[in-house]
Specification:
The structure is a single chain. The protein is built from eight helices and eight strands, in the order αββββαββββαααααα. The longest helix has 24 residues. The protein is α+β, with helices and mostly antiparallel strands and 225 residues long. The strands form four sheets. It has a two-stranded antiparallel ribbon with strand order 1-2. The chain has a two-stranded antiparallel ribbon with strand order 3-4. Strands 5-6 form a two-stranded antiparallel ribbon.
């Protein structure tokens, strides 16, 4: 959607707002009240955010200055992006190297490793929250469904939009395998002592493969694996 669409006007292909992608100007992404503005110059970004602030004020809304940040790529200048308050006050928006948007960590280097660390911590937190229940369950199918519905989404959140390298995919599998061992009551040393392969533990656990889950989600949403 273009800036003109956000303003309520017809599409204008000659506009300088946004970034040109496939013949259209990508100016923003929005989910409810969470909005990302895209601009090709800090001055343009200042103009866009200023107009957004003014239009929000007309309908009784206010931009959260504490959550409004600037994230630049390596090609951007360091010119500040500013918001005007009143006739004389101008405030520069804080620059950050990373930002959490819709639960996913974004950074200027487009590195996936920091977000994978967050996903691993989230998955373990989700598992620890249900461990007492899974330990008490006697039906493997119910236990697997509980794991797949709570722990797997925490580990794989947003992964349908990522492009996985072999190394990153292996990191996800290693984390999932560790969670899977805990689910069936095995430690890594016990797995090695008994020479148990992942396939055997998968049969014991009955849980879904994380990469197949990610692939399926990518097919559903149109995102890459």
């Amino acid at each position: 959607m273009s800036w003109n669409h956000l303003q309520g006007h017809d599409e204008d292909h000659a506009t300088n707002f946004g970034i040109r992608i496939n013949g259209r100007n990508l100016t923003h992404l929005r989910f409810a009240e969470d909005i990302v503005l895209a601009a090709n110059h800090p001055n343009t970004a200042s103009e866009m955010i200023q107009e957004l602030v003014e239009r929000c004020a007309k309908v009784g809304l206010q931009v959260n200055n504490n959550k409004t940040k600037v994230l630049r790529n390596t090609f951007a200048t360091d010119h500040p992006v500013c918001i005007k308050s009143g006739a004389t006050t101008t405030t520069a928006i804080e620059d950050v190297s990373e930002y959490i948007y819709l639960g996913r960590l974004l950074n200027v280097r487009n590195e996936l490793e920091p977000e994978l660390h967050r996903r691993r911590r989230a998955a373990w937190a989700a598992f620890n929250g249900i461990k007492n229940i899974t330990d008490a369950l006697t039906c493997p199918k119910i236990r697997a469904r509980l794991f797949d519905s709570i722990v797997l989404p925490a580990l794989a959140y947003g992964s349908e939009t990522r492009t996985f390298t072999k190394a990153l995919a292996e990191r996800v599998q290693v984390t999932h395998a560790s969670l899977e061992r805990r689910l069936v009551g095995l430690s890594l040393s016990q797995q090695r002592e008994r020479n148990l392969h992942r396939e055997y533990i998968r049969r014991l656990s009955g849980v879904r493969d994380p990469l197949l889950h990610t692939w399926h989600e990518g097919q559903t949403t149109g995102g890459p694996l």
